[in-house]
């Protein structure tokens, strides 16, 4: 954990406590600005159960190619079958024995 992450966590924590303490004020302010009505409308019209399912499925599917691309482009290669780190230039995985 780096110092930057710790500072961010502390700042987020302080901001969250301030928001919780002034919850009623924040709610009234959001209601005045029409943000809550807008959010209700968007949820009713666009965020149906099907849409949420599709979004979650896309998030799950989109994570994998990015990790594989990172594994291929770098100096360290990974086995496409068991994700074991490959050492050297051999054509076979040392862990599961599959051809790379
Ligand atoms: Zn393997």
């Amino acid at each position: 954990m780096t110092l930057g992450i710790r500072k961010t966590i502390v700042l987020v924590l302080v901001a969250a406590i301030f928001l919780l303490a002034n919850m009623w004020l924040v709610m009234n302010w959001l209601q005045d600005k029409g943000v809550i009505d807008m959010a209700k409308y968007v949820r009713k019209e666009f965020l149906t159960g099907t849409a949420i399912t599709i979004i979650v499925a896309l998030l799950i599917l989109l994570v994998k190619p990015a990790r594989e691309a990172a594994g291929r482009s770098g100096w360290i290669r990974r086995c496409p079958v068991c994700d074991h780190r490959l050492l050297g230039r051999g054509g076979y995985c040392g862990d599961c024995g599959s051809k790379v």
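The first strand starts at residue 77 and ends at 78. Residues 3 and 40 are 39 Å apart (CA to CA).
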